[in-house]
């Protein structure tokens, strides 16, 4: 992917803003969700909404550390846009009768741990770490999940909403890969040493300990919902393909790490990776929710109401 | 700002009536534009120097400038009153350490009476043009009312921040609800039980928000950049102190001196990047942590620029107000305005009965409030296009006998604006006396002197916190700082203490 002009991108982002009130939430089509679909879709939408929301928080952290004013402003918008996507997904859940009153759906334990990590540590993690992980999550989870959703749900309002969401996401990915390439410029040796230092950073270790099981858990969830595992892996391979297209992209050591991780992840025969990570998934499922601190207040900003 | 929140539209604006016939008035010795602190202070000192042929043009129907116009709920000065007052007219009766706008306006009005200034003031005269007549050596001020007032010398004391500014938000004209600007408060609007939005979190906003939150059913505050906020040591003045100041005026002068020196020391934190800057940032962070327990809200309110780069705010009740159950802080980017309210990038339309714009003032980095035409028909706004420039902030080459108050690079970041103003006023008195004593037609600063002064000042500014990378109203779009003075108030006073005739061209009458 060629490097993009970030100033032009910022102008484009500003000129393509939309809001929940652009969608008619009472339009016909809600009844196209079948009874059989409903319970699985509810779990699926809950995961999707939370993934968008943690993505939002990651962009907030990146905005704080962005190397230029333009990138800072772009990330500030992306933070808001991911929040908008989560709001839209919550509004769809409301439309489909999946919300229990005004209550927020409960995130799964691995997402809950990621929320905790983002709240406490993400602002201190260097921008290029999140700058590589976020495109991976966007392309793999967002990409695969959104496609699966549109393949299985006939409600036209859902399609209208995701057309808008996908437009936003394509800009997020454009910037994401461009920034990865920007980070690939310069002496590889120095960057590798810096990366090695970051891997020893307890914040990053904790993040990895939350991120690995999240991916395996999500894989299990989407497979349970009927998405073929291969489709998820195809998206992850797309990350490797686009991210590694240029020399700069390939020389970003964080790209290399995430790439190798995604290879382990898609290789079910890699017991060295999957046995301990699946064990971690299982172990985290035993964590009593009561032991976790109260959810951070940024979580409470989610809403399905188009107006306030 | 170290004074108040600057000025704006007149409470009783002079009506623009078509000038059917021009009414020329007899030239005065000194023509002053504006009857706020600067204009009135200049008149007092001129009067004390024996110059009593003065005309003051005021666009509103009463005196007071900033303090007449900024009367929103909670309006107050963020410099202690004992320092935010004239040394030549101290007031022993300030009711609080930091007085509100009403009390300050009362002080100004009392000053007009005490020094018998009303006779000089022409109310409801809004200057629309100020031009120098080279043949006669006089300045002519034409007003919207069709009058022409003249003076051998002219003083521009209209205030550096005198016109309200609305933000550049798409669709702002579509909003159908009530709109109020902090600088032109609508006292007839009843905020009780209303859904109110406040755009801006600057000096005016942080005074308005704690008051509005008491009345509004829901208050939503839109923030773009969080400011550094430090505690405000505000308290009622004890009666014994008032009595002491009345009986022993020297005690008040001593307190004033102490306050002055304390503020001078703050320059080390505010103007330059020093260990004091780190201490000041610690104070700001401590204040935030003490008042805001929620980690996310604290993150939203934590500034990401060096303290001093923008105006530092002082408040004890802003953070608590934001945490009231009926108040919400929004930091999402504003995308546009609609009929009903404000849309933000997280996709939500925030609907309001009333929106308060606490968005500051049009700052004349490069313009002038009205056309100012000097020798040879030159126009000041054209010359200032790339950033305003003056000699010692007070004179401009090509504009003889014209004096500016709060001209380019005279803004204080750490001390009372009135301290700077006194230095400017005394310089004006020296200038006017030179014109009279030497019977000059023109006293005109030399271009080379002005250039040399500005080159030095810009070099000094490059090393200050104001020029450290944040965006603020101190800087032009090109990043030129034409607003602030890069030094201690004492340095400024020293530079203004003498009028160097070698820097001027003197042409006899």
UniProtKB/TrEMBL annotation, chain A:
SUPFAM superfamilies found in the cross-reference section: Ferritin-like (SSF47240)
Name assigned to this protein: Reductase
UniProt source species: Marinobacter lipolyticus SM19
UniProtKB/TrEMBL annotation, chain B:
Keywords per UniProt: Monooxygenase, Oxidoreductase
Domain of life where this protein originates: Bacteria
Molecular function GO terms recorded: monooxygenase activity
Region (Disordered): 1-22
PANTHER family the record matches: FAD_NAD(P)-BINDING DOMAIN-CONTAINING PROTEIN-RELATED, L-ORNITHINE N(5)-MONOOXYGENASE-RELATED
Protein name as annotated: Monooxygenase
